[in-house]
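Lab notebook: predicted structure, single chain.

Context: the supervisor wants predicted structures on file for every construct in the current expression panel, including those that have not yet been purified. This is the next one on the list. No modifications to the sequence; it matches the entry in the shared construct table.
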Amino acid sequence: MAILEHPAATAAERAAGATRARPRVVAPWIGLGVALMTYIGAGIPSYWGDEAASVMSAQRPWSSLASELSTVDAVHGMYYALLHLWVGVFGTGEWSTRALSTIGIGFLAAGVVVLGRRWFDQRTAILAGLLIAVIPRASLLAIEARGYSIAAAAAVWLTILFVQLVDRDARRRAWIGYGIAVAVSGTFFLYLLMMPVVHFVALRTRRERTSARVVRRWLTSLAIAAPLSVPIVVVSQFQKGQIAFLAHRSYVTPAGVVVTPWFGHLPVALVMWPLLILGALVLARASRRGDTRAEGFLPVLTWLLLPAFALILFDLLVSPVYNPRYLSFSLAAVALLISAGVWAVLDAARRIGARNAMAAAVIVLTAVAAVTVVPEFVRQRTPFAKDGGADFRAAAAEVGEHARPGDTVLFGITSRNSRAPRLAYRLYPGDFAGLRDPQLITAYDRTNGLWDRLATVSDVARGLSSDTVWLLESGSTGSSKADLAALQAAGFTRTARTHIHRTVVYEFQKGKQS
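Prediction complete. Output recorded below exactly as produced.
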Protein backbone atom coordinates (compact mmCIF):
# COMPACT_ATOMS: atom_id res chain seq x y z
CA MET A 1 0.00 0.00 0.00
CA ALA A 2 1.50 3.31 -1.13
CA ILE A 3 0.61 5.41 1.85
CA LEU A 4 2.08 2.94 4.32
CA GLU A 5 5.15 1.85 2.40
CA HIS A 6 7.83 4.44 2.99
CA PRO A 7 11.22 2.72 3.41
CA ALA A 8 13.10 5.78 2.16
CA ALA A 9 11.57 8.41 4.34
CA THR A 10 11.28 11.94 3.01
CA ALA A 11 12.19 14.97 5.09
CA ALA A 12 8.51 15.53 5.86
CA GLU A 13 8.14 11.93 6.99
CA ARG A 14 11.25 12.12 9.17
CA ALA A 15 9.88 15.26 10.79
CA ALA A 16 6.58 13.49 11.39
CA GLY A 17 8.42 10.51 12.82
CA ALA A 18 10.39 12.73 15.16
CA THR A 19 7.14 13.88 16.71
CA ARG A 20 5.67 10.38 17.02
CA ALA A 21 6.60 10.21 20.68
CA ARG A 22 4.98 13.50 21.56
CA PRO A 23 1.52 13.67 19.86
CA ARG A 24 0.08 15.47 22.85
CA VAL A 25 2.39 18.36 22.01
CA VAL A 26 1.82 18.31 18.25
CA ALA A 27 -1.98 18.14 18.34
CA PRO A 28 -2.59 21.28 20.45
CA TRP A 29 -0.21 23.33 18.31
CA ILE A 30 -1.95 22.23 15.12
CA GLY A 31 -5.31 22.98 16.71
CA LEU A 32 -4.12 26.45 17.71
CA GLY A 33 -2.65 27.13 14.28
CA VAL A 34 -5.81 26.05 12.50
CA ALA A 35 -7.94 28.16 14.84
CA LEU A 36 -5.80 31.25 14.26
CA MET A 37 -5.81 30.77 10.51
CA THR A 38 -9.55 30.23 10.21
CA TYR A 39 -10.26 33.19 12.50
CA ILE A 40 -8.83 35.50 9.84
CA GLY A 41 -11.64 37.74 8.61
CA ALA A 42 -14.18 36.29 11.04
CA GLY A 43 -15.77 39.66 11.71
CA ILE A 44 -16.06 40.79 8.09
CA PRO A 45 -19.29 39.11 6.88
CA SER A 46 -22.58 40.43 8.15
CA TYR A 47 -24.62 38.18 10.38
CA TRP A 48 -27.31 36.19 8.58
CA GLY A 49 -30.63 34.74 9.69
CA ASP A 50 -29.45 31.54 11.39
CA GLU A 51 -26.81 33.48 13.27
CA ALA A 52 -29.50 35.95 14.28
CA ALA A 53 -31.38 33.08 15.91
CA SER A 54 -28.22 32.19 17.84
CA VAL A 55 -27.32 35.71 18.94
CA MET A 56 -30.86 36.71 19.88
CA SER A 57 -31.44 33.46 21.77
CA ALA A 58 -28.17 33.89 23.63
CA GLN A 59 -29.23 37.35 24.82
CA ARG A 60 -32.47 36.13 26.37
CA PRO A 61 -32.77 35.76 30.14
CA TRP A 62 -32.59 32.12 31.21
CA SER A 63 -36.34 31.91 31.79
CA SER A 64 -37.05 33.36 28.36
CA LEU A 65 -34.59 30.96 26.72
CA ALA A 66 -36.30 28.02 28.44
CA SER A 67 -39.66 29.25 27.13
CA GLU A 68 -38.27 29.48 23.60
CA LEU A 69 -36.75 26.00 23.70
CA SER A 70 -40.06 24.55 24.85
CA THR A 71 -41.50 25.35 21.42
CA VAL A 72 -38.62 25.73 18.97
CA ASP A 73 -34.89 25.07 18.50
CA ALA A 74 -34.52 22.65 21.42
CA VAL A 75 -31.95 20.81 19.30
CA HIS A 76 -29.76 23.92 19.53
CA GLY A 77 -30.46 24.52 23.21
CA MET A 78 -27.07 23.48 24.57
CA TYR A 79 -25.29 25.72 22.09
CA TYR A 80 -27.57 28.67 22.89
CA ALA A 81 -26.88 28.17 26.60
CA LEU A 82 -23.13 28.06 25.97
CA LEU A 83 -23.31 31.14 23.77
CA HIS A 84 -25.37 32.91 26.46
CA LEU A 85 -22.47 32.51 28.87
CA TRP A 86 -19.97 33.49 26.17
CA VAL A 87 -21.65 36.75 25.12
CA GLY A 88 -22.10 37.68 28.76
CA VAL A 89 -18.30 37.97 28.91
CA PHE A 90 -17.22 38.84 25.37
CA GLY A 91 -20.21 40.64 23.84
CA THR A 92 -22.38 40.05 20.78
CA GLY A 93 -20.21 41.34 17.92
CA GLU A 94 -19.28 39.05 15.05
CA TRP A 95 -15.64 38.78 16.13
CA SER A 96 -16.77 37.64 19.55
CA THR A 97 -19.55 35.17 18.82
CA ARG A 98 -17.72 33.54 15.92
CA ALA A 99 -14.60 33.10 18.05
CA LEU A 100 -16.46 30.37 19.94
CA SER A 101 -16.94 28.48 16.67
CA THR A 102 -13.31 29.03 15.73
CA ILE A 103 -12.28 27.44 19.01
CA GLY A 104 -14.48 24.49 18.06
CA ILE A 105 -12.63 24.14 14.76
CA GLY A 106 -9.32 24.25 16.62
CA PHE A 107 -10.46 21.39 18.85
CA LEU A 108 -11.62 19.52 15.75
CA ALA A 109 -8.19 19.85 14.12
CA ALA A 110 -6.38 18.75 17.29
CA GLY A 111 -8.72 15.79 17.65
CA VAL A 112 -8.13 14.73 14.05
CA VAL A 113 -4.39 14.57 14.79
CA VAL A 114 -4.91 12.48 17.92
CA LEU A 115 -7.37 10.08 16.31
CA GLY A 116 -5.49 9.90 13.01
CA ARG A 117 -2.30 8.85 14.77
CA ARG A 118 -4.17 6.10 16.60
CA TRP A 119 -6.08 4.77 13.60
CA PHE A 120 -3.52 5.41 10.84
CA ASP A 121 -0.05 6.93 11.22
CA GLN A 122 1.59 10.15 12.27
CA ARG A 123 2.00 11.76 8.88
CA THR A 124 -1.60 11.06 7.87
CA ALA A 125 -2.76 12.48 11.18
CA ILE A 126 -0.73 15.69 10.98
CA LEU A 127 -1.69 16.49 7.41
CA ALA A 128 -5.37 15.74 8.15
CA GLY A 129 -5.29 18.15 11.06
CA LEU A 130 -3.81 20.87 8.86
CA LEU A 131 -6.38 20.20 6.12
CA ILE A 132 -9.15 21.26 8.51
CA ALA A 133 -7.99 24.84 7.92
CA VAL A 134 -8.69 24.67 4.18
CA ILE A 135 -11.59 22.27 3.70
CA PRO A 136 -14.28 24.84 2.82
CA ARG A 137 -16.99 23.56 5.16
CA ALA A 138 -14.62 23.67 8.12
CA SER A 139 -13.27 27.13 7.30
CA LEU A 140 -16.86 28.34 6.92
CA LEU A 141 -18.08 26.87 10.20
CA ALA A 142 -15.14 28.52 11.95
CA ILE A 143 -16.75 31.91 11.27
CA GLU A 144 -20.38 30.96 11.83
CA ALA A 145 -22.19 31.69 15.09
CA ARG A 146 -23.86 28.28 15.08
CA GLY A 147 -23.06 25.06 16.91
CA TYR A 148 -21.89 22.90 13.99
CA SER A 149 -18.16 23.34 14.56
CA ILE A 150 -18.59 22.31 18.19
CA ALA A 151 -20.62 19.29 17.05
CA ALA A 152 -17.86 18.28 14.62
CA ALA A 153 -15.30 18.57 17.40
CA ALA A 154 -17.55 16.59 19.75
CA ALA A 155 -17.80 13.77 17.19
CA VAL A 156 -14.03 13.32 16.97
CA TRP A 157 -13.36 13.66 20.71
CA LEU A 158 -16.18 11.26 21.55
CA THR A 159 -14.47 8.79 19.21
CA ILE A 160 -11.11 9.42 20.88
CA LEU A 161 -12.73 8.68 24.24
CA PHE A 162 -14.13 5.43 22.83
CA VAL A 163 -10.74 4.38 21.42
CA GLN A 164 -8.98 5.15 24.70
CA LEU A 165 -11.48 3.10 26.70
CA VAL A 166 -11.12 0.13 24.35
CA ASP A 167 -7.32 0.29 24.32
CA ARG A 168 -7.09 0.49 28.09
CA ASP A 169 -9.77 -2.12 28.79
CA ALA A 170 -11.34 0.56 30.97
CA ARG A 171 -13.45 -0.06 34.01
CA ARG A 172 -17.22 0.01 33.98
CA ARG A 173 -17.27 3.46 35.59
CA ALA A 174 -15.36 4.97 32.68
CA TRP A 175 -17.75 3.37 30.20
CA ILE A 176 -20.67 4.94 32.05
CA GLY A 177 -18.99 8.28 31.37
CA TYR A 178 -18.86 7.39 27.68
CA GLY A 179 -22.59 6.65 27.70
CA ILE A 180 -23.32 10.00 29.30
CA ALA A 181 -21.05 11.71 26.76
CA VAL A 182 -22.98 10.12 23.89
CA ALA A 183 -26.26 11.45 25.28
CA VAL A 184 -24.83 14.93 25.93
CA SER A 185 -23.39 15.10 22.41
CA GLY A 186 -26.89 14.46 21.07
CA THR A 187 -28.13 17.59 22.81
CA PHE A 188 -25.49 19.64 20.96
CA PHE A 189 -26.41 18.06 17.65
CA LEU A 190 -29.04 15.35 17.34
CA TYR A 191 -27.34 13.37 14.60
CA LEU A 192 -24.27 12.77 16.75
CA LEU A 193 -26.35 9.92 18.14
CA MET A 194 -25.21 8.06 15.01
CA MET A 195 -21.62 7.97 16.25
CA PRO A 196 -22.02 4.73 18.25
CA VAL A 197 -22.59 2.99 14.90
CA VAL A 198 -19.14 4.18 13.83
CA HIS A 199 -17.77 2.88 17.10
CA PHE A 200 -19.49 -0.47 16.56
CA VAL A 201 -17.71 -0.77 13.21
CA ALA A 202 -14.43 0.03 14.98
CA LEU A 203 -15.07 -2.80 17.44
CA ARG A 204 -15.84 -5.21 14.61
CA THR A 205 -12.64 -4.19 12.81
CA ARG A 206 -10.48 -5.20 15.76
CA ARG A 207 -12.67 -7.97 17.14
CA GLU A 208 -9.76 -10.42 17.39
CA ARG A 209 -8.04 -8.01 19.79
CA THR A 210 -11.12 -6.93 21.73
CA SER A 211 -12.29 -8.88 24.75
CA ALA A 212 -15.90 -9.84 25.32
CA ARG A 213 -15.77 -7.78 28.51
CA VAL A 214 -15.08 -4.61 26.54
CA VAL A 215 -18.02 -5.32 24.22
CA ARG A 216 -20.33 -5.93 27.17
CA ARG A 217 -19.29 -2.69 28.85
CA TRP A 218 -19.75 -0.78 25.61
CA LEU A 219 -23.27 -2.18 25.24
CA THR A 220 -23.98 -1.29 28.86
CA SER A 221 -22.89 2.27 28.22
CA LEU A 222 -25.31 2.49 25.30
CA ALA A 223 -28.07 1.15 27.52
CA ILE A 224 -27.36 4.16 29.73
CA ALA A 225 -27.14 6.59 26.80
CA ALA A 226 -30.44 5.48 25.27
CA PRO A 227 -32.85 6.68 28.00
CA LEU A 228 -30.78 9.83 28.54
CA SER A 229 -31.20 10.62 24.84
CA VAL A 230 -34.95 10.09 24.78
CA PRO A 231 -35.92 13.64 25.84
CA ILE A 232 -34.04 15.40 23.03
CA VAL A 233 -35.27 12.85 20.47
CA VAL A 234 -38.89 13.25 21.60
CA VAL A 235 -38.71 17.04 21.72
CA SER A 236 -37.12 17.16 18.27
CA GLN A 237 -40.07 15.17 16.91
CA PHE A 238 -42.57 17.57 18.46
CA GLN A 239 -40.65 20.50 16.96
CA LYS A 240 -39.95 18.99 13.55
CA GLY A 241 -42.20 21.59 11.96
CA GLN A 242 -39.29 24.03 12.22
CA ILE A 243 -37.45 22.16 9.45
CA ALA A 244 -40.53 21.91 7.23
CA PHE A 245 -38.85 24.49 4.97
CA LEU A 246 -36.50 21.72 3.79
CA ALA A 247 -39.35 20.36 1.68
CA HIS A 248 -39.05 23.48 -0.50
CA ARG A 249 -35.26 23.72 -0.74
CA SER A 250 -34.46 20.66 -2.89
CA TYR A 251 -31.17 19.93 -1.15
CA VAL A 252 -31.10 16.29 -2.30
CA THR A 253 -29.41 17.01 -5.62
CA PRO A 254 -26.06 15.85 -7.01
CA ALA A 255 -24.45 19.13 -5.93
CA GLY A 256 -26.24 19.10 -2.59
CA VAL A 257 -24.90 15.63 -1.85
CA VAL A 258 -21.33 15.60 -3.21
CA VAL A 259 -20.30 19.26 -3.35
CA THR A 260 -22.05 21.44 -0.80
CA PRO A 261 -21.66 19.34 2.38
CA TRP A 262 -17.88 19.73 2.61
CA PHE A 263 -16.45 21.49 -0.43
CA GLY A 264 -18.72 24.45 -1.13
CA HIS A 265 -18.15 24.80 -4.87
CA LEU A 266 -17.49 22.48 -7.78
CA PRO A 267 -13.81 23.39 -8.45
CA VAL A 268 -12.87 22.47 -4.89
CA ALA A 269 -14.87 19.24 -5.09
CA LEU A 270 -13.14 18.29 -8.35
CA VAL A 271 -9.80 18.51 -6.56
CA MET A 272 -10.70 16.97 -3.22
CA TRP A 273 -12.99 14.11 -4.22
CA PRO A 274 -10.31 12.31 -6.31
CA LEU A 275 -7.86 12.62 -3.40
CA LEU A 276 -10.51 11.35 -0.97
CA ILE A 277 -11.39 8.38 -3.18
CA LEU A 278 -7.72 7.58 -3.75
CA GLY A 279 -7.14 7.67 0.01
CA ALA A 280 -10.09 5.34 0.58
CA LEU A 281 -8.83 2.88 -2.05
CA VAL A 282 -5.30 2.82 -0.67
CA LEU A 283 -6.52 2.34 2.89
CA ALA A 284 -8.99 -0.35 1.80
CA ARG A 285 -6.15 -2.30 0.22
CA ALA A 286 -4.06 -2.03 3.38
CA SER A 287 -7.02 -2.98 5.54
CA ARG A 288 -7.61 -6.15 3.53
CA ARG A 289 -3.96 -7.06 4.13
CA GLY A 290 -4.47 -6.71 7.85
CA ASP A 291 -2.17 -3.70 8.25
CA THR A 292 -2.91 -2.21 11.68
CA ARG A 293 -1.94 1.21 10.36
CA ALA A 294 -5.18 1.13 8.36
CA GLU A 295 -7.27 0.03 11.33
CA GLY A 296 -9.52 3.06 11.11
CA PHE A 297 -10.49 2.68 7.46
CA LEU A 298 -13.89 1.03 7.91
CA PRO A 299 -14.94 3.24 10.85
CA VAL A 300 -13.89 6.37 8.95
CA LEU A 301 -15.68 5.23 5.79
CA THR A 302 -18.81 4.56 7.87
CA TRP A 303 -18.45 7.98 9.46
CA LEU A 304 -18.35 9.54 6.01
CA LEU A 305 -21.18 7.59 4.36
CA LEU A 306 -23.67 6.57 7.06
CA PRO A 307 -24.98 10.04 7.96
CA ALA A 308 -25.37 11.00 4.30
CA PHE A 309 -27.19 7.79 3.32
CA ALA A 310 -29.38 7.83 6.43
CA LEU A 311 -30.51 11.43 6.00
CA ILE A 312 -31.04 11.12 2.25
CA LEU A 313 -33.11 7.94 2.58
CA PHE A 314 -35.19 9.42 5.39
CA ASP A 315 -35.65 12.60 3.37
CA LEU A 316 -36.81 10.71 0.29
CA LEU A 317 -38.94 8.06 1.97
CA VAL A 318 -40.32 9.63 5.16
CA SER A 319 -39.95 13.36 5.74
CA PRO A 320 -37.59 16.17 4.66
CA VAL A 321 -34.57 16.19 6.99
CA TYR A 322 -31.57 16.58 4.69
CA ASN A 323 -29.46 19.72 4.81
CA PRO A 324 -25.83 19.67 3.60
CA ARG A 325 -24.71 21.45 6.77
CA TYR A 326 -25.95 18.53 8.86
CA LEU A 327 -23.12 16.37 7.48
CA SER A 328 -20.47 18.66 8.93
CA PHE A 329 -19.87 16.30 11.84
CA SER A 330 -18.18 13.99 9.31
CA LEU A 331 -15.43 16.54 8.65
CA ALA A 332 -12.84 14.50 10.55
CA ALA A 333 -13.44 11.52 8.27
CA VAL A 334 -13.20 13.73 5.18
CA ALA A 335 -9.88 15.20 6.33
CA LEU A 336 -8.35 11.81 7.15
CA LEU A 337 -9.27 10.27 3.81
CA ILE A 338 -8.04 13.28 1.82
CA SER A 339 -4.79 13.20 3.79
CA ALA A 340 -4.34 9.53 2.90
CA GLY A 341 -4.92 10.41 -0.76
CA VAL A 342 -2.36 13.22 -0.72
CA TRP A 343 0.28 10.94 0.82
CA ALA A 344 -0.51 8.28 -1.79
CA VAL A 345 0.23 10.81 -4.55
CA LEU A 346 3.49 11.85 -2.88
CA ASP A 347 4.53 8.23 -2.35
CA ALA A 348 3.85 7.48 -6.01
CA ALA A 349 5.99 10.46 -7.02
CA ARG A 350 8.82 9.23 -4.80
CA ARG A 351 8.69 5.72 -6.23
CA ILE A 352 9.00 7.04 -9.77
CA GLY A 353 12.57 7.77 -8.88
CA ALA A 354 12.88 10.74 -11.21
CA ARG A 355 14.89 13.65 -9.92
CA ASN A 356 12.76 16.20 -8.09
CA ALA A 357 9.58 14.14 -8.69
CA MET A 358 8.58 14.52 -5.06
CA ALA A 359 9.11 18.28 -5.13
CA ALA A 360 7.14 18.53 -8.37
CA ALA A 361 4.22 16.64 -6.84
CA VAL A 362 4.21 18.94 -3.82
CA ILE A 363 4.29 22.01 -6.06
CA VAL A 364 1.44 20.74 -8.25
CA LEU A 365 -0.77 19.85 -5.28
CA THR A 366 -0.07 23.21 -3.65
CA ALA A 367 -0.78 25.12 -6.84
CA VAL A 368 -4.04 23.30 -7.46
CA ALA A 369 -5.13 23.98 -3.90
CA ALA A 370 -4.15 27.64 -4.24
CA VAL A 371 -6.35 28.23 -7.28
CA THR A 372 -9.37 26.39 -5.85
CA VAL A 373 -9.38 26.45 -2.05
CA VAL A 374 -7.86 29.88 -1.42
CA PRO A 375 -10.45 31.81 -3.48
CA GLU A 376 -13.23 30.01 -1.59
CA PHE A 377 -11.58 30.82 1.75
CA VAL A 378 -11.41 34.49 0.77
CA ARG A 379 -14.96 34.57 -0.60
CA GLN A 380 -16.29 33.27 2.70
CA ARG A 381 -14.81 36.34 4.38
CA THR A 382 -16.37 39.07 2.25
CA PRO A 383 -19.03 41.47 3.64
CA PHE A 384 -22.05 39.85 1.97
CA ALA A 385 -20.80 36.25 1.90
CA LYS A 386 -23.47 34.61 4.04
CA ASP A 387 -26.85 33.28 2.91
CA GLY A 388 -26.43 34.53 -0.61
CA GLY A 389 -25.95 38.15 0.37
CA ALA A 390 -26.95 38.91 3.96
CA ASP A 391 -26.45 42.66 4.49
CA PHE A 392 -27.98 43.43 7.88
CA ARG A 393 -24.88 45.27 9.14
CA ALA A 394 -24.59 47.52 6.10
CA ALA A 395 -28.32 48.29 6.20
CA ALA A 396 -28.11 49.17 9.87
CA ALA A 397 -25.05 51.34 9.24
CA GLU A 398 -26.94 53.26 6.55
CA VAL A 399 -29.67 54.13 9.02
CA GLY A 400 -27.18 54.86 11.80
CA GLU A 401 -25.26 57.30 9.61
CA HIS A 402 -28.22 59.37 8.44
CA ALA A 403 -31.04 59.03 10.95
CA ARG A 404 -31.51 61.44 13.84
CA PRO A 405 -32.96 60.84 17.32
CA GLY A 406 -36.73 61.07 17.19
CA ASP A 407 -36.98 59.70 13.65
CA THR A 408 -39.11 56.62 13.10
CA VAL A 409 -37.86 53.31 11.70
CA LEU A 410 -40.15 50.78 10.04
CA PHE A 411 -39.59 47.33 8.58
CA GLY A 412 -41.20 45.38 5.80
CA ILE A 413 -42.74 42.02 6.63
CA THR A 414 -41.37 39.05 4.68
CA SER A 415 -42.49 35.44 4.40
CA ARG A 416 -39.03 34.30 5.43
CA ASN A 417 -38.27 35.42 8.97
CA SER A 418 -34.58 34.61 8.67
CA ARG A 419 -34.27 37.32 6.00
CA ALA A 420 -36.56 39.91 7.58
CA PRO A 421 -35.09 43.43 7.60
CA ARG A 422 -36.12 43.67 11.26
CA LEU A 423 -33.11 41.50 12.13
CA ALA A 424 -30.82 44.46 11.40
CA TYR A 425 -32.45 46.22 14.36
CA ARG A 426 -31.81 43.30 16.71
CA LEU A 427 -28.32 42.43 15.53
CA TYR A 428 -26.95 46.00 15.38
CA PRO A 429 -29.04 47.96 17.91
CA GLY A 430 -26.49 50.75 18.27
CA ASP A 431 -27.36 52.06 14.80
CA PHE A 432 -31.01 52.46 15.79
CA ALA A 433 -30.48 54.19 19.14
CA GLY A 434 -32.98 57.01 19.75
CA LEU A 435 -35.31 55.98 16.90
CA ARG A 436 -39.00 55.32 17.41
CA ASP A 437 -40.19 51.75 16.87
CA PRO A 438 -44.00 51.85 16.55
CA GLN A 439 -44.39 48.45 14.86
CA LEU A 440 -43.33 46.38 17.85
CA ILE A 441 -46.17 44.39 19.41
CA THR A 442 -44.17 41.88 21.45
CA ALA A 443 -40.40 41.73 21.78
CA TYR A 444 -38.89 38.40 20.83
CA ASP A 445 -37.60 37.72 24.35
CA ARG A 446 -41.14 37.97 25.69
CA THR A 447 -42.42 35.29 23.33
CA ASN A 448 -41.86 31.55 23.14
CA GLY A 449 -40.68 31.89 19.55
CA LEU A 450 -37.59 33.27 17.85
CA TRP A 451 -38.66 36.63 16.46
CA ASP A 452 -40.39 39.92 17.30
CA ARG A 453 -44.11 40.23 16.68
CA LEU A 454 -44.76 43.29 14.54
CA ALA A 455 -47.67 45.29 13.24
CA THR A 456 -47.59 46.02 9.52
CA VAL A 457 -46.52 49.38 8.14
CA SER A 458 -50.11 49.91 6.98
CA ASP A 459 -51.32 49.48 10.57
CA VAL A 460 -49.11 52.26 11.95
CA ALA A 461 -48.55 54.65 9.03
CA ARG A 462 -51.38 57.10 9.77
CA GLY A 463 -50.45 57.43 13.43
CA LEU A 464 -46.81 58.37 12.88
CA SER A 465 -45.77 61.68 14.45
CA SER A 466 -42.17 61.88 13.24
CA ASP A 467 -41.30 64.09 10.30
CA THR A 468 -38.73 61.57 9.05
CA VAL A 469 -39.37 57.86 8.56
CA TRP A 470 -36.85 55.21 7.60
CA LEU A 471 -38.20 52.07 5.95
CA LEU A 472 -36.16 48.89 5.45
CA GLU A 473 -37.43 46.40 2.88
CA SER A 474 -36.05 43.11 1.63
CA GLY A 475 -35.58 43.95 -2.04
CA SER A 476 -38.78 43.84 -4.04
CA THR A 477 -40.30 40.95 -2.10
CA GLY A 478 -42.71 40.80 0.80
CA SER A 479 -44.79 43.85 1.66
CA SER A 480 -42.70 46.56 0.02
CA LYS A 481 -45.31 47.87 -2.45
CA ALA A 482 -48.04 47.98 0.18
CA ASP A 483 -45.70 49.67 2.67
CA LEU A 484 -44.65 52.39 0.23
CA ALA A 485 -48.26 53.04 -0.70
CA ALA A 486 -49.32 53.22 2.98
CA LEU A 487 -46.70 55.85 3.81
CA GLN A 488 -47.56 57.91 0.77
CA ALA A 489 -51.24 57.75 1.67
CA ALA A 490 -50.34 58.94 5.18
CA GLY A 491 -48.78 62.11 3.74
CA PHE A 492 -45.14 61.07 3.50
CA THR A 493 -42.96 61.64 0.45
CA ARG A 494 -40.06 59.41 -0.48
CA THR A 495 -36.88 61.48 -0.52
CA ALA A 496 -34.17 58.80 -0.80
CA ARG A 497 -33.73 55.18 -1.78
CA THR A 498 -30.51 53.26 -1.06
CA HIS A 499 -30.08 49.73 -2.35
CA ILE A 500 -27.58 48.08 -0.02
CA HIS A 501 -27.25 44.54 -1.37
CA ARG A 502 -30.38 42.60 -0.54
CA THR A 503 -32.00 45.29 1.58
CA VAL A 504 -33.40 48.62 0.39
CA VAL A 505 -33.43 51.59 2.78
CA TYR A 506 -36.00 54.31 2.08
CA GLU A 507 -36.19 57.77 3.60
CA PHE A 508 -39.59 59.49 3.83
CA GLN A 509 -40.36 63.06 4.87
CA LYS A 510 -43.71 64.28 6.14
CA GLY A 511 -45.44 66.49 3.58
CA LYS A 512 -42.25 67.23 1.67
CA GLN A 513 -42.55 67.41 -2.09
CA SER A 514 -40.31 65.12 -4.13
